[in-house]
Amino acid sequence: MTELKASQYNLSFNYEDKIIAYNSMSDQFLVLDPLLHDLFMAAIHEEDLPALKDIHEDLFLLLQKKGFIIPDTKNEYEEIKKISFNHDFNDENYELIINPTMNCNFKCWYCYETHIKDSRINDETKNKITKHIEQTIIRKQGVIKNFSLNWFGGEPLLYFNPIIKDILESIYPLMVSNNINFHSSFTTNGLLISQELLDVGKKYGIKQFQITLDGHRERHNKVRYISKQKGSYDKILENIKLCLKNSFVVTVRINISEETISDLVKIIDDFKDINNFEKQYLNFSFHEVWQEEKELTADISNIVDQFRAHGLVCAYKGEHIATITNSCYADKFNHATINYNGDVFKCTARDFKTSSKEGYLADTGEIIWNETFQKRVFDSRFSNPPCFSCKILPLCNGGCSQHRLENFGKDYCIHNYDENRKLEIIKQKFYTRLIHT
Questions:
Q1: pTM of the full predicted structure?
Q2: Which of 6, 164, 180, 433 is most exposed, with minimal Cβ within 10 Å?
């Protein structure tokens, strides 16, 4: 028999009267009786995995099939690197994020963006962007199969007409004629969505909106208001439901802080009137605001469970972190974020100051990258020693490229070396699958 070993990426935790085994490399769960789990652990301890086949062949074969037991010659770390490069340098996919403006109709206290009142894409930059997209399609004709165009900011819908509409009208026919799967989406506060906008979206490949709620009505209206006398919660809720009726996918991002958490379950009642057809387009994503210092994981997990109990699809921690097969957009070679002024970045979760740019959009439409791009995409990959032995590396991916860039040359762990925090990611992933599979 081929020499065998246990995968480096095996973890386990208790659930009711069972042991949940998980392999982060294969992304597979097994629900085991404690006795079977003990047999597996004993075989590892005795360094005699083949003996497990003699004692319980079905268990042995299942563990082997799911990646918990692997050939001794298999180098999982090198395989992770190979998978990562294959995904992040895949020429079949191209992703572009565009900031039409850095202005916004809200001024949320936690926002990291610098709002620039008169900022907007001018005709010169709009033409450069259109050239860039056209040239990318022509240059990689027959290679690109998927093109994702996402709108960010600032509030992008401030300039749906004419900026966004003009760009979509110019490029969409090119996508169709080249048989490219085109997908356009918006990260928006949702206030300016209308039926007219959605009708245009249906014509030009708009598929999805990410819309934020800052807690339930009372709290949200204190943070995101149209005027001091008029909140935005009910109008945004109305617009979310309008999107669902029109078959647009909506991810409702719920921003969580200690102040918002007590009333979050009330949001469930506000979606009780949507039907099953509309519900299939709706999902919720829970995020602590980055300034929050208190550990809220247990409280949020309980709230997520209540959302799921009402048949609402939710993501929290384990199901929305970057992985080697689903890495952050900024990790990918064929990705760019173009600011309203033609500066080019990779990450949207930091400032858009010109001093931080990683390239610029030339008159020809070509992106001219600088040395920061080289460091992000190439030099910092798999360079952090603590990741080499971490059991959740296939999930965590060592953090995104922005983490790698900001910690380049030093040891770090985005989970603060806390094994309990890592295990919580696995548990959340398991709970999500338990409900939705």
A1: 0.86
A2: 433
